[in-house]
Amino acid sequence: MGHLTIVALIAVLFTLFVEIEANPFAYNYQRLRIGGLVCASLLFVGGLMVVLYTRCTGKNKKVEDDNSEI
């Protein structure tokens, strides 16, 4: 829950500092590209965290199962 709060806070701060353009259909492609790269990198890191978390918890469960059989 703490991570979600941090992400929401960053999103609010980001919207405060974004410039409002007169024409909403005139895109700044540099900003769009950077935003896409940031989004892709966050998704990539999140995926790695999920994979590593499941891998780490899988090792602990095997150790506990081996100890319970003895």
Automatic annotation (TrEMBL):
The chain crosses the membrane at residues 32-53. The keyword Ion transport applies. It is a single-pass membrane protein. GO terms for cellular component: membrane. Coiled coil: none annotated. One of its GO terms (biological process) is monoatomic ion transport. InterPro entries: FXYD_motif, Ion-transport_regulator_FXYD. Residues 1-22 form the signal peptide. Keywords: Ion transport, Membrane, Signal, Transmembrane, Transmembrane helix, Transport. CDD domains: FXYD11. Its main location: membrane. It is found in: Membrane. The keyword Transmembrane applies. Belongs to the FXYD family. PANTHER family: SODIUM/POTASSIUM-TRANSPORTING ATPASE SUBUNIT GAMMA. This is FXYD domain-containing ion transport regulator.
